[in-house]
Amino acid sequence: MKKTLIALAAVAAVGASYAQVSITGGVDFTVGKAAQSLTNGSADAGLSATDAYIDVTVTDDMGGGWKSVSAMEFNADGGFQSAAYSGDKSFTLISPVASLTLASTRTGGTIGMVLMAPVVSSTDHWSGANAAVLSRSAVDVMVLKATVAPGATLAYKYLEAGATGSASPLATVNVLSGTYAIGAAALAADYAVYSGSSYNGDVRNSKLTAGATYDLGFAKVGIAYEGAGAGTANSTTAGTAASGTFLGLSAPLNASTTVGLNYGKRDAASFTEAGAQYMLSKKTFVTASYATFANTGGNQDSYGLRLGHSF
Questions:
Q1: CB atoms within 10 A of CB 289
Q2: What is the Cα–Cα distance from 4 to 15, expressed in whole angstroms?
Q3: What is the pLDDT of residue 215?
């Protein structure tokens, strides 16, 4: 996504402090059929606005290797005259040795890194039809991260799951995570320990999630594993949790066209997504995808054709 960069020279009385404001966004529409929860037997079809958002990032260089980065997202992808709503928001303080981030966001990053095929919203793996395999939850989070070696980071994360700002969050989570990148390979892992009452139907209080991607040159591949335990998507077997496995593939056919495949499975539930994206320009694109979703409640498919522009 290209950025429209507005340099705001906020020259202070001391030194040459300045701020930079980066404004990005996008608008796109999709025609197709979206799979809904397999329990209600319905599926939405037709034309809809699938994305309409603006991201604003403000960077303040304080000198000496210190800076702050504030980011917020505004969404307006509801129906006509529907109210706009806020998305992710964060504040990061960066020092020469470490960074501290406070954010209101959603989980799922380690698995999301491997699900790289271009798909439209109606066939997205995060959809409600897929809750038995993969789900995200709203969290307030604090992240303390440091680079410990070339290409390697370690982080401690404290999360509160549930409604943002809740005085009694659904659960609190302590996470130790790490990333490592070398050449064409990238790896990430999280070990999370949950506290509070049973979370998402499971009383087990820890979980390991790990993922890896590798760029082969002609294609990029990824694999991720999420252990059974608290915070996982609900298993299709009542009263139990199950581990999940996820695969992704993305391949450029030429400078303008990319195709890909995503796959995920947990217990008896699974999804498969195939998609292709063609860049009409550097900022305007058309994406087509088809997906199948399955669990013990039955099977569904979904498809969509998406036209959009990012800025």
A1: 27
A2: 27
A3: 97
Structure tokens at 283: 């900022």
For 70-128, what is each residue's pLDDT tens digit?
Answer: 999 988 876 666 777 778 899 999 999 999 999 988 766 788 889 899 988 655 666 66
Q: Is 155 left (phi over 0), alpha (psi -120 to 50) or beta?
A: beta
Choose among 310, 109, 140: nearest CA to 213: 109
Q: Would you say how long the chain is, in residues?
A: 311
Which residues make beta-bridge pairs with 66?
63
- pLDDT over 50 (residue 220): yes
Torsion sign, CA atoms 190, 195, 197, 202: positive
Q: How far apart are CA 123 and CA 272, in angstroms?
A: 9
Q: What is the mean pLDDT of the chain?
A: 80
Helix-strand-coil split of the chain, %, nearest 5: 5, 60, 35
pLDDT of residue 199: 47
- φ and ψ at residue 35, rounded to 5 degrees: -70, 135
Angle value at C-alpha 124, between 122 and 130, nearest 5 degrees: 105
Rounded to the nearest 5°, which phi and psi values hold at 108?
115, 5
Q: Which domains does the chain show, CATH number per domain?
A: 30-42+96-310 (2.40.160.10)
Question: Strand 185-195 vs strand 206-215: parallel, antiparallel, or unpaired?
Answer: antiparallel
**Rounded CA gap, 302 and 309, in Å?**
23
- Cβ contacts of 71 within 8 Å, gap of 6 or more: 55, 56, 57, 58, 88, 89, 90, 91, 92
Which of 134, 131, 135 is CA-nearest to residue 36? 131
Residue that is written with structure tokens 């005085």 in the block: 167
Convert 152-176 to b/e letters by CB count within 10 Å (16 or more is b).
Answer: ebbbebebbbbeeeeeebbbbbebe
Specify whether the backbone of 205 is left (phi greater than 0), alpha (psi in -120 to 50) or beta: alpha
